[in-house]
Amino acid sequence: MTVLATPAFLNRVKSIFPARSVSNPWFIMTAVVFSAANLPEEVPRVFAYAMEDVQTDQEKIALARKFREALFKSGLTSGYPKVINSLKALNDTMPEGLREKKVLRNVNLSLEEYGKIGKRAFTDLYGSTAQSVQSLLDDIYPDMGWFSNTIGYGLTYTLTDVLSPLETSYMLVASLITVDTPQQIIWHLANARRAGASLEEVRAVREIAMEVGRCAGIEWRNEVPEVLE
């Protein structure tokens, strides 16, 4: 089987993100795209390459958690069967000391509490567009609106101890580009800007997702939206 995530390819992808940024989240988009493209075998290769940039045990643990959390969160947009396969491939090569041993989310909160948390997070992320998007979700199927607030934004996306809100936005953009959903890409490109990304950074996120997508064999039926200024 041909290896796609070669060191040369990953180095090129890594170089796309602006060098002057505080941190380079290239590996989040790269791992998520390979996972969403149903190429789980590439995810451990991305992890191994990213590990070359960290030194301490604490940094290694943090990186391993970011990989797992990015993949887990991407399941709501790319599909959890793909995420399960990617997490298994990653876990099979993960050193024992870097494996997760406990649930990171608060299992003691009620769904009602998660719904309130999610609604606040949704409103903060979508800004002035929050009401129109929420109304759309509620209108097409009330369960969709409830699920988005409670499970999506309440339970899944708002754990920010591992992935920051901005990194979560990057993850969403990468996943949505891979699965070719222009409307949602537009939403989350704008959300990444609201979360604090510069125009140059969001453009780099889009470019990385498309570069990895092309490598993974993705063929887009729709034009991938550009980042609006």
From TrEMBL:
Entries under InterPro entries matching the protein: AhpD-like, PTS1_Protein
Official protein name in the record: Carboxymuconolactone decarboxylase-like domain-containing protein
Organism: Amanita muscaria (strain Koide BX008)
